[in-house]
Structures are given as structure tokens and as C-alpha cells.
Amino acid sequence: MNIPTKQEKYYGDEQIQVLEGLEAVRKRPGMYIGTTSLRGLHHLVYEIMDNSIDEALAGYCDCITVIINKDNSITNIDDGRGIPVGINKKMGVSNVEVVHTVLHAGGKFGGTGYKVSGGLHGVGASVVNALSEWMEVEVARDGKLYSQRYERGKPVTDLEVIGDADYTGTKTTFKADPVIFDEIYFDYDILLKRFRELAFLNRGLKIKLIDDREEVPKETLLHYEGGIVSFVQYINQNKNVIHPDIIYFSGEKENAEIEIAIQYTDSYVENVFSFANNIPTTEGGTHVTGFKTAITKVINDYAKKYNLLKENEKNLSGEDVREGITAIINVKLLEPQFEGQTKTKIGNADMRSFTESVVTEKLHDFLEENPKTARIIIEKSITSCRAREAARKAREMTRRKSALETTSLPGKLADCQERDPSLCELFIVEGDSAGGSAKQGRDRRFQAILPLWGKMLNVEKARADKVYGNDKLTPVITALGAGIGEDIDLRKLRYHKVIIMADADVDGSHIRTLLLTFMFRYMKPLVENGHVYIAQPPLYKVKKGKEEYYVYNDRELNKLMDEKGWIKGDSNITIQRFKGLGEMNSDQLWETTMNPETRKLLKVDLNDPLLADEIFTILMGEKVEPRKEFIQKYAKLVTNLDI
Questions:
Q1: What is the pLDDT of residues 259-288, one digit of tens each?
Q2: What is the pLDDT of residues 552-608, one digit of tens each?
Q3: Which of 176, 168, 46 is nearest to 119 (CA)?
Q4: What residues pair up with 418 in beta bridges, in sequence order?
């Protein structure tokens, strides 16, 4: 290690750097939009859209149109009030310019421009401007149409009147900067998913998405007069609901509003999705805590009042009353206290008691007025309670059995030597053959191997009591050591990297999907905390003379052949296609798929729990028709299919 000398460590005035204006954003874009990947690119659209949504929340905007232009620039048009165009007394330039060139500037801080806002930090428009190659803003206000252009965050024209306008609103067009972003291509479906969410959360708002890159422009209008009731219907469209009516109620006080929609399905998992000022609060918060407390109390009180519980049955737990629930909690607050930079949890203390009181009063009234629906929900909760008790007994049997065995770890597990979980990896491998190669090829110091065989239980169609004791899942649960469901404790996790390694064929995809479904439904914290990965074994080995290359898909193969000037069919070139992990010897498996220095891993992220729930329901749920439609829609994207 080279230790710097005192001269090298000198720290003086000339080393203090001041990044003026928006230079800091361009220097560290990840601090403002999280990443410069496609996710960060799409975030730019949301930031501009948020300003239009805030106008809708304030009651001044009815329609928002977003256009993906042919050059992959984005245009956002709203019919709101239009950004104020007067000269800002403090900055000496127009307020339009201030909003687009100064961080933490806008009408969302004083409580008068906007009562409720999702864009709380005032960085949206200025950050997008800073990260754009160019941006053009048009404002229709006070009978005039104003325009200004910026390049890489700096104004290149003054705000000028370009015509008259008998309407109001703001039109923003920007082109993301290729110097900043890895790739500039907007995915229509990704934008559509977020816009649909916003249309549900803002009842009556019209959001139009247009893709002008197609020969025939693609256009979708999102407009839901039912609001979050329509949202619940949409989420449950591929599920079997157990009562037709959707429970809806709302409440408000001086500085907050809340609305909740609930419907139960015959599934065994809960789906409670919460939002604050249109922002998904994926980590919950006080509004979710209040909801869960109240719904448990109300349902228990109702069950006791009408003697629906047997004498020997205890109170229904929160987990029992939420089994199969789909609920949307939508709150709008004057001063939301978002916890953390990601705004995924709210901490307003008063929201817990406010939510509790609204749910307690309104849900109680609904159950009393709708006894048929009430009894269906109670029966579902009681069945869940009994199954949970059966699961507890199965769990205890599993523990007792493990205690009596000479080792509590699965017999097929080849454990590693390292005992610090943060340094350990577990490869869950499909099949004994591939498991054998993996055991021989691994670095036994920190890599453990667990071979699986045969198809495992589809947990989408099973309760927890069926999971315990299942001969395909028990080895996974035992090897990981953290438990499942309500018992999961990541402090007991034995490996901080859990890597699913399956063949690149249909059977391998099925195994991966079954395992991911299990982890999403019963070990969600494992996924949320970034412990789950998918191994990427190569698809081809290409050899010519002494040159050898492993490539992972057809695109990489074609690129390699072009770069080398090689021609497919040349007798001097060997292209070996791996149909399964078992075809690789241990050295190949180590070099391509297991060696941390050379392998490729896909990290399993849970950025969008709602979308994940939808996909798992379609792929693994009871209904066949949605699965058929999904396959037909995406079949054209399949590039390799082993038959």
C-alpha cells in the first residue's frame, strides 16, 4: 500500500471547488435521479410529469399529454395555470428561468402555490434541464405564449413572447443528453404503467401517451372516473374475487385526505399498495400501520359480535384478516414527512391515528350494512387462521425433526468453509448433474452448492401449511436458515448472495420462475434487500485455432463474428451451443458462471411490487386465459427456444 507523503496530502484553498448552478447535477447525476441507466432516463419524464400532476392536484389541470418524439425527445403538455412569467425579485430573471435553472426553486415551499405536491424538493425541472442536451419550454399565460430554450441546463435565449394564447398551460420538450445517459430509448410500456397508476390515483384526470416513433403513431388515453376503485378492479382482473363489491371509503381533515379501496380474492397473499401525494410508499409508513391495526380490530370485533369464532379459537391475527386482500391506500398531505432520499415511507405521526379512526368508523359501517360480504371476509380470515395454525404445527414438526437429526442442514448441500454470511454465496442449482459440476468447480472457501431435482411446489396456488414439509422447498428454507413468512429473520440468513443457476431452456425458466415466486411470496425481505441473483451461463462457446470465446446470446455471437471478420459455416470455426449446465465441465462452469472475476449475475430487484404481483399472478395463478394472452403477446420476443 502506497502511503501518501505530507506534500501529496496537502489540502489548500485551491482545492476547494465550487460547482455553480446546475454543474453539480451534471457532475453527480446519480444523486438526483438514482442512476444513468434506462431507469434514470425514464425518471426524467416522471419529474416533468410531476409538475403537471401537481397542477391537477391543485384543481387546475384536467389533461396531460406526453409524446415520445421520433428523435426520442419527450414533450409534456398540460392545461394548468402555466408557470409564472414575471421577473423574480431575488434572481433578477424570469420565474420560468428560475424554475429551470435553480435547484430548490418553485411554488411548492410556501404552502400557497400548491396545497398538495409530490415534487417536494423543487429540483424536478431544473435537474431534467441540467441532464438534457436541450430543452424548450412554452408557457401560455395571461393571454400570451412565451418561449425559452436551454442547452445542457443553460439558457440560450431569453424568455420571449412568441404569440397570443386563449388558453393556459405549460409545454416542455427535452432531449436527454447522450453524454450523461448510457442509452437513450424510452420504453412505451414502462411509461404507460406509471401513467396508468397516476390516472387511477387522480380520479377524472386524463393522461394521454403518444408514441410518434411508429409509422402509425401509437396512442393510449388513460381516464378513470372510478379512481382507486378502478385501480383495485385492474389489479384483480386476473384473480378470482370472492365478493363482487369493492369496499370504498374516504375521510379528510384540515391538512390531509385519505381514500381506501378494498376487495378480497381467493389467493393466499396480501397486496396492500400505498401512496402519498401520488408517490408509491413501498416501505409503508404511519398510514399503512394505522390501516393494518384498524382492519384487524374491526374484523375481530365483528366476528365476536356475531359469534363467528368457535370457543377454542383465538383472535384473528393481522396476517389472517389480510390474506387475499387487495387494498389501495391513497393519502394526500399538506406537509408529508418522507423518510429517506427515496421517499418510499412516510413518518407523519398524526397519520396513524387519522387512518385508524377513518378505517374503524367506515369499515365498521360497511360490514354492518353488507352482512353477506362481511361473512365472506370473516370466513376467509377464519380459514386462514386455521391454516396458519396447521403451518405452525408443521413448522414445529420440521424443527423437532431437524433437532433429532445428526445435522440440521440438507443432505445434498455442499456447504462452504467461510462462516461470515456477508462473504458467503449459495448456488441453487437445477439437477444433480449440474450440481456435481458446480461442486467440483466452485471455490469451496465461500461458495456453497444446493442441487434441486424435479419440479417444486407452485406456491401461488398453496398456503403456508403446504410449503412446510414440501420436499423440494424444505432444503431451500433450511439451507438459508432465515425462516419464511412472518417468521423470516434476515439476521439468521446464512448466505448473503443467493444465486439461482438453471439451464437456459424452458425447464430452466420454469424452475427459476417457481423459485422466484416462492421467494417473492414467502421471503420478500430477501428480495427487497438485494440478496437474490440469477446466474448467466453462456449460450455459446466459439473457437478458432487457439482463440476461444464464451458468448451469452445471439446478439453477442453476431457482434463477435463481425468484429473478428469470421463467417458462420467456416470449417475452421467451431460454435458449440450449451443446452444445459450439465454439458459444461467444472472448469468451464467456474470460468463462465461462478468466478466472481469473470461471471455475469443478474440482481433481482423489487422496484415495482405491483407489477411483480401482476406478473406472478399471470404466470403462476389459476386463470389460464391471462397466461395465454401474455404468451401470445411476448412470443415474438423469444430468440431461443429449445424443443
A1: 999 999 998 888 999 999 898 888 889 999
A2: 888 889 899 999 899 888 888 999 888 778 778 889 899 889 999 988 898 888 776
A3: 46
A4: none
Amino acid, single-letter form, for residue 525: P
Nearest to 456 by CA among 474, 444, 438: 474
Interatomic CA distance for residues 621 and 511, integer angstroms: 16
The phi, psi pair for 25, rounded to 5°, reads -65, -45
| 243 and 335 assigned to the same domain | yes
pLDDT digits (tens, 9 = 90+) for 424-449: 999 999 877 788 889 999 999 999 99
In terms of domains, do 186 and 285 share one?
A: no
In CATH, what number is assigned to the domain containing residue 254? 3.30.230.10
In a domain, 546, yes or no: no
For 314-321, which contacts have Cβ atoms below 8 Å and span 24 or more sequence positions?
Answer: 314/385, 316/381, 316/382, 316/384, 316/385, 317/385, 317/388, 318/292, 318/293, 319/270, 319/384, 319/388, 319/486, 320/381, 320/382, 320/384, 320/385, 320/388, 321/295, 321/296, 321/377, 321/381, 321/384
Q: How many domains does the chain have?
A: 3
Q: Is residue 56 part of a domain?
A: yes
Q: Is residue 100 part of a domain?
A: yes
Q: Is 2 inside any structural domain?
A: no
The torsion defined by the Cα of 258, 263, 269 and 273, in degrees rounded to 10, comes to -20
Give the residues across from 222 on adjacent strands: 207
Per-residue pLDDT of 148-190, as tens digits, reads: 999 999 999 999 999 999 999 999 999 999 999 988 999 999 9
Q: Does 253 lie in the same domain as 194?
A: no
- Shared domain for 434 and 526, answered yes or no, is yes
Phi, then psi, of 99 in degrees rounded to 5: -60, -35
Q: What sign for the dihedral angle of Cα 479, 481, 487, 491?
A: negative
End-of-domain residue from the set 222, 256, 288: 222
Same domain? 461 vs 533: yes
**Among all residues, which ones are annotated catalytic?**
430, 503, 505, 507
Query: Which of helix, strand or coil describes residue 103?
Result: coil
pLDDT above 70 covers what percent of the chain? 85
Q: How far apart are CA 539 and CA 554, in angstroms?
A: 8
**C-alpha cell of 342?**
427515496
Contact between 164 and 143 under an 8 Å Cβ cutoff? The reply is: yes
- pLDDT > 80? residue 5: no
In this predicted structure, the answer to whether residue 59 has a pLDDT above a threshold of 60 is yes
CA end-to-end span of the chain: 55
Alpha helix stretches (DSSP H) within 58-102: 95-101
- The enclosing domain of 30 has a CATH number of 3.30.565.10
DSSP-derived letter for residue 314 is: -
Domain that holds residue 474: 408-537+603-637
